[in-house]
Amino acid sequence: MSISHIGIIGAGAWGTALAQAVRAAGSDIVLWAFEQEVTDGINAGHENALYLPGVPLDPAIRATSVLEEAAAADAVLLVTPAQHLRRVTAELAPALPSGAPVVICSKGIEQGTTALMSEIAAETLQGHPVAVLSGPTFASEVARGAPTGLTLACRDEAVGKALALALGSPHFRIYRTDDVNGAEIGGAVKNVLAIACGVAHGRGFGDNTRATLITRGLAEMTRLGVAKGGRAETLMGLAGLGDLTLTCTSTQSRNYSLGEALGRGETLEDILNARRTVAEGVFSAEAVTALAAKINVDMPICAGVEAVLKGRATVDEAIEALLSRPSGREAG
């Protein structure tokens, strides 16, 4: 399989950063943007001033507002918000070339169905190999060429190798696995846990608390991943522990900064109204806890975050509920 022409669906900060990184790897790029102003800005000024301001883009990156133009590629990267993926893939399906692989770069679990993004793609894009790209990636750093490591999960080894070759470069290092479910669970759950760590920081707790939340959160993530058919080793890698560490320790993380604001006493409505970008953990929290309940996995930190976001508990009540739980064996 030869992959040299890549379409990217979604021109937010991460989609734009991916366009820059993949272009540096040598592939031709067509980037689909929902907003016409983003398309015009990238084509005329080689900058996404709306979502990734101040980062000059390779002039060879072409943006379009026509979905079919981006779909006409050797492979397509899906970078839309997770809760919109089903609608976008349904629109995309008729335009994709036969057998073209799709790479899911969105992190989340669908509300209502508790479907993983790869499960949605398998349902709506039948006949197209599905891969997942995940890991510790702040868009601005990727776009500026900072060395970054990612996991590419694909059950088809030949397709995975071809995608890794097309997407990867010395500064955009890709490590392959066939554990699609494990990679997806890591990407979805870490956003919820990042909100928890942000809340703790906003409440004035210290590094001890954050380290505990990261460690026990990793245990929750691993339990869910294994129960969903993934492997624990995947959750100890870039798509799990790597991404969790990044998003739980920096205000660059939209989920962490949202949690920090909640911890300071701001309302969720006010926080969301002040933002243009999506904090996926707000939407994933409900789906993560619903999936955990469906397959009987205990995830008290994620459940506490979900209760706060849904208004069923205050921050202080959620903290008290966690601290009053009986302690058990660390491996549990």
Q: Helices, strands, pairings?
A:
Blueprint: E1 5-9, H1 13-24, E2 28-32, H2 36-45, E3 62-64, H3 67-71, E4 75-78, H4 85-92, E5 102-104, H5 117-124, E6 130-134, H6 139-143, E7 148-154, H7 157-167, E8 172-177, H8 180-202, H9 207-227, H10 232-235, H11 238-247, H12 254-263, H13 268-273, H14 280-294, H15 300-309, H16 315-323
Helix pairs in contact: 4-5, 8-9, 8-11, 8-12, 8-14, 8-15, 9-11, 14-15, 15-16
Largest sheet: 8 strands, mixed
User: What is the top-level CATH class of the largest domain?
Assistant: Alpha Beta
Number of DSSP strand runs: 8
Tell me what portion of residues adopts beta-strand conformation: 5-15%
Main β-sheet, spatial strand arrangement = 3-2-1-4-5-6-7-8
Residues in helices, as a percent range: 40-55%
Model regions low in confidence, pLDDT < 50 over at least 5 residues: none
What is the total number of structural domains? 2
Distance N terminus to C terminus? Answer: 43 Å
Q: Helices and strands: which structural class?
A: alpha/beta
Mean pLDDT: 96
**Shape designation:** globular
Number of helices: 16
H-E string: EHEHEHEHEHEHEHEHHHHHHHHH
CATH topology of the largest domain: Rossmann fold
What does the radius of gyration come to?
19 Å
Q: CATH homologous superfamily of the largest domain, by name?
A: NAD(P)-binding Rossmann-like Domain
Please tell me the CATH architecture of the largest domain by its name: 3-Layer(aba) Sandwich
